[in-house]
Amino acid sequence: MALTLPDLPYAKNALEPHISAKTLEFHHGKHHKAYVDNANKLLEGTGLEKEDTEKIIKEVAGDASRIGIFNNVAQAWNHSFFWTCLKPGGGGRPTGQVAKKIEVDLGSYEKFAESLKNAGITQFGSGWAWLVLKEGKLEVMKTANADTPIAHGIKPLLTIDVWEHAYYLDYQNRRPDFLQAVIDNLIDWDFVNSRLA
Question: Do 186 and 104 lie in a common domain?
Answer without folding.
Answer: yes
